[in-house]
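--- STAGE predict ---
source: upstream dedup step, 1 unique chain passed
mode: sequence only
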Amino acid sequence: MLQLITTLKELMVILEKLINLAERKKVVLVERKVDELNQLVQEEAKIIKQLNQVDQEREQLVESVMQNHPSLSFSQFVEQLPDELTRKNLQSKLKTLQQLMMELHDINKVNESLIEDSVNFVQHMIEHITKSKQQHFNYQSPIGQQKSQTSNRGFFDTKA
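--- STAGE serialize ---
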């Protein structure tokens, strides 16, 4: 059980790193610093890889503990722990983990919204630029059109 609590602590530390990183990403997104955003995304990928490894370890520990109690869910198992100190410690860690995940989820939602706004802005600017270029290339003054029409008349089309 101690190993599981240690693993949960590791998960909490990793989630706190991800939350800090998400907060930094929010600032970078608002300031539109693309290079810094790329660095943060690379750093985030490393941390997520670490998170996945520790989470797999947690899953294995839970499975090994639950083999002796197949009829119970993990939360039921925790509630039935005989050692009150271990039970409260484990419940506390699980609650903190859940709060950290919710906080990370909320920050990521804000970041997602910022990214969508940025993409929409870029698309709008691209459309604006391409429309203005198309109008520029397709525009002909009415005087220019008249000259071309009169100059296209052949020798026999002229009035006497």
